[in-house]
Design brief:
The chain is an alpha+beta fold. It folds into 2 domains: about 15-105, Orthogonal Bundle (434 Repressor (Amino-terminal Domain)); about 140-215, Immunoglobulin-like (Sandwich), CATH 2.60.40.10. It is about 35% helix and about 20% strand. The chain has helices at about 15-25, 30-35, 40-50, 60-70, 75-85, 110-135; strands at about 140-145, 150, 155-165, 170, 175, 185-190, 195-200, 210-215. The chain has a 5-stranded mixed beta sheet with strand order 2-8-7-4-5, with no helix packed on it. A 3-stranded antiparallel beta sheet has the order 1-3-6, with no helix packed on it. Mean pLDDT is about 80; it is low at about 1-10, about 85-90 and about 100.
């Protein structure tokens, strides 16, 4: 009884079929060969089925063919030349290109991914640097009154100014209150003669900002 064996149209014993037939003639299984030549079994099966899209790109796939063909006593170059066909039908080495799966278009190339990761890392580092600087840097302190050293005749003076809302303000070491916008005001008593005023502002972990004034009371 004759059995019909389906073959590819226009190709008798293509290079993939020759690999399969050479293996079967020797009574070998793919997994057994895979262990001996240290190539994954699914790659060897892809070679027999001529599924180049399942193989690694470039030289890796071509080297797999050489290793597999050599193990079976075949020449990889002869198989590739037969695959290319006649001079009128010649195409490039099938392993010089790799068919890209559709979902691969959704994956960034490694270099772009690395650039993005580096950019994100730099942004995070700069933000952390800015945040730490904001914590430890002395707060802004503006004394609006008096805006300079004064000569006065009164024995009291209104001190006003502005700092950062979370800063603690002191005048000559005495804490005064500031509102939630950082504005403060305080009337202080002065002695006759020269009065040295030291106005300071400091956040919890920051350095201290100091502004001094000298008030001479006649």
């Amino acid at each position: 009884m004759n059995f019909f064996v389906p073959k590819k149209i226009g190709a008798e014993n293509s290079w993939g079929e020759k690999l399969r037939l050479a293996r079967q003639e020797r009574g070998l299984e793919i997994e057994g060969i895979a262990k001996k030549i240290n190539i994954r079994g699914d790659y060897l099966k892809a070679l027999e089925e001529e599924r180049l899209d399942l193989l690694p790109a470039g030289l890796y796939g071509k080297n797999f063919l050489k290793e597999y063909a050599g193990f079976l006593g075949l020449k990889a170059q002869d198989l590739i030349e037969e695959h290319n066909g006649t001079a009128a039908e010649k195409i490039s080495d099938p392993f010089s290109k790799k068919i890209v799966k559709k979902n691969k278009f959704l994956v960034f190339p490694k270099i772009i991914r690395n650039i993005l990761l580096l950019t994100v890392g730099i942004i995070c580092f700069l933000y952390l640097l800015f945040y730490l600087k904001k914590i430890f840097l002395a707060p802004e302190l503006i004394v609006t009154q008096p805006d300079r050293n004064l000569l006065i005749s009164e024995n009291s003076l209104l001190i006003t100014g502005k700092t950062e809302p979370e800063a603690e303000v002191k005048i000559n070491g005495e804490v005064i209150l500031n509102n939630n916008q950082g504005q403060f005001s305080q009337i202080i008593n002065l002695k006759k003669g020269l009065n040295d005023l030291e106005i300071t502002a400091q956040k919890k972990y920051s350095r201290e900002k100091i502004v001094t004034r000298q008030i001479l009371v006649e």
